[in-house]
Specification:
Elements (H helix, E strand, L loop, with lengths): L2 H26 L2 H9 L2 H5 L8 H17 L1 H9 L2 H9 L4 H15 L3 H9 L2 H8 L5 H15 L3 H9 L2 H8 L5 H15 L3 H9 L2 H7 L6 H15 L3 H9 L15 H15 L3 H9 L2 H11 L6 H13 L1 H9 L3 H10 L3 H15 L3 H8 L4 H9 L5 H15 L5 H4 L8 H14 L4 H9 L2 H7 L7 H10 L4 H21 L5
Helix pairs in contact: 1-4, 4-5, 4-7, 6-7, 6-9, 7-10, 9-10, 10-13, 12-13, 13-16, 16-18, 18-21, 20-21, 21-22, 21-24, 23-24, 24-27, 26-27, 27-29, 29-32, 31-33
Length: about 500
């Protein structure tokens, strides 16, 4: 065989390897082919190609492995069990930028599925290599590395700490200062994933100077970047008063309020989440938000969107109202009750209804004035109906019951309470009757109305346990009226029951 023929054989072999790697990479991008590729043992065939002398074949083989591993955790586990990770990690720092991006994609695809698979990357030294890639001159390599680190860090605090210990945070902060929007997005997302687990991890991100750079990007026109920036600031602020104050000191107000009017729903949601995470900590932080116009902005946001986008705004109003009478009144004055009532009645998801019920309970729990503001919105029957509905989730029932109790214990506006006498179960009824027993002894007009509207008659029909708190309330109400009126009502009730009993008797 001549030298030319030998070279032709090698060229044919190279073309065959290239075609094979490209074909597998193409097939792996389509879910319907993945199972067939797995059954054919394609993992074992791709592994030696990662060490091929031709860089293009190495990159294509890595891309194919990444697409397969990305599909499900079984294939990702096959990458780990096939000892492919050490091979990738060893060559990651030595190859060209195309291979680095493909290899980082494989690590990301493996690490995203479970903490155990992410831990396998840590154990083979993948974090240190990925951190080195964050210093690469190519933005695409940095982006791929940051993405992989984020997928590892998001699982739990231990893996997130491992990412921090590998030295990733300062380099990620540098990445958010790069001009490339895609790199900024992924770096901000990874900082968010690191910060979310604990105050200590969030503090590490803060110490690297992340807050100031993130705050500057709140008004960036790129919606996807704004989502990640707001998420990162939320994850930092949620842990403690000190961290929330550091976020506020970056002068995010009133700038962040513009995000609540953004056309992108996730920007709205993440903006409201950030405000919620700050408001929940202290009355002082909530007051700062009120002073910046934050309550009115959140109320407008709730009215302009639907579904889960509303949820953080609803909770933010609840947190603000919970802190003090004055802050709760700020929610009332800003006309926050009608949109909360709308959320309670319009939304389909029980967890959103539960949040609205909880928020209304926080608004109405302070004084009779606060309770009246909620009661006149005619929301009490809705809360009672949801509490008694057997189809309501357990959380919704708990939240509506607590809200009813909070409002009823302060409510002295009797016209809103009287309709509940006819439907409320005993555990709610005692709070309603209790309020009547507090108001009627001191209000002659209310006493007259209570008779003419049939309220007193309804109270006489209540069957309370002797010596119970409910019976004590009924006795207090009865003592507000002359004995002959109470006796007359009782006799009419007894006569009505007797007539019904006679009507039910069988005829012969």
């Amino acid at each position: 065989m001549s030298q030319r023929q030998v070279l032709q054989v090698f060229e044919q072999y190279q073309r065959a390897r290239t075609q094979f790697a490209q074909a597998v990479a193409e097939l792996a991008s389509r879910p319907q082919h993945v199972e067939t590729l797995q059954n054919a043992g394609v993992m074992a065939l791709l592994r030696p190609l990662l060490l091929d002398v031709v860089p293009t074949i190495q990159q294509t083989a890595a891309l194919a492995l990444g697409r397969l591993a990305n599909y499900n955790d079984d294939l990702a586990e096959a990458v780990v069990k096939g000892d492919i990770l050490p091979q990738l990690v060893c060559s990651l720092s030595e190859q060209n930028r195309f291979y680095k991006k493909a290899a980082a994609f494989v690590l990301r695809a493996v690490g995203k599925h479970s903490p155990q698979l992410a831990q396998a990357i840590v154990q083979c030294g993948g974090l240190e290599t990925l951190v080195i890639c964050l210093e690469d001159f190519d933005p695409g390599v940095k982006e791929a590395a940051a993405w992989a680190l984020g997928y590892i860090a998001r699982h739990n605090s231990e893996l997130s700490q491992a990412v921090v210990d590998a030295g990733a945070v300062p380099l990620l902060v540098l990445c958010i200062q790069e001009p490339e929007i895609a790199l900024k997005r992924i770096a901000a997302s990874t900082l968010s994933d690191i910060s979310k687990h604990s105050p200590e991890l969030a503090q590490t991100v803060v110490d690297a100077g992340a807050i100031a750079h993130l705050a500057q990007m709140i008004l960036n026109p790129d919606a996807k970047l704004k989502r990640q920036v707001l998420s990162a600031l939320s994850q930092i602020a949620k842990h403690s008063v000190d961290l929330a104050e550091l976020v506020v000191e970056a002068e995010i107000f009133p700038v962040v309020l513009t995000c609540l009017k953004d056309s992108d729903e996730y920007v709205k949601k993440n903006g409201a989440t950030l405000i919620r995470e700050i408001a929940k900590h202290t009355p002082e932080l909530s007051q700062l938000i009120v002073n910046a116009g934050g309550v009115a902005a959140v109320i407008d946001c709730i009215g302009s969107c639907r579904g889960t986008v509303r949820l953080p705004g609803i909770m933010m109003l609840g947190y603000v109202a919970a802190h003090s009478e004055n802050l709760s009144m700020a929610v009332i004055i800003s006309k926050g009750i009608p949109p909360l009532c709308t959320c309670l009645m319009e939304e389909n998801e029980d967890h959103i209804k539960a949040a609205a019920a909880w928020a209304l309970g926080q608004v109405g729990r302070h004084t009779p004035e606060h309770a009246r503001a909620v009661a006149v919105a005619n929301v009490l029957p809705t809360l009672l109906s949801m509490y008694m509905d057997t189809h309501s989730s357990e959380d919704l029932q708990v939240k509506t019951k607590k809200a009813l109790k909070n409002i009823l214990q302060k409510c002295t506006y009797l016209p809103a309470l009287e309709p509940l006498l006819h439907d409320a179960p005993p555990n709610i009824l005692k709070h309603i009757v209790g309020q009547f027993s507090k108001v009627l002894p001191h209000d002659s007009k209310a006493r007259r109305l209570f008779v003419t509207t049939g309220g007193l008659k309804k109270v006489q029909e209540i069957k309370a346990e002797p010596g119970s708190l409910l019976q004590e309330y009924i006795n207090t109400i009865n003592n507000c009226y002359p004995e002959e009126i109470v006796r007359g009502i009782y006799q009419r009730i007894a006569l009505s029951h007797l007539k019904k009993s006679i009507c039910r008797r069988p005829s012969f």
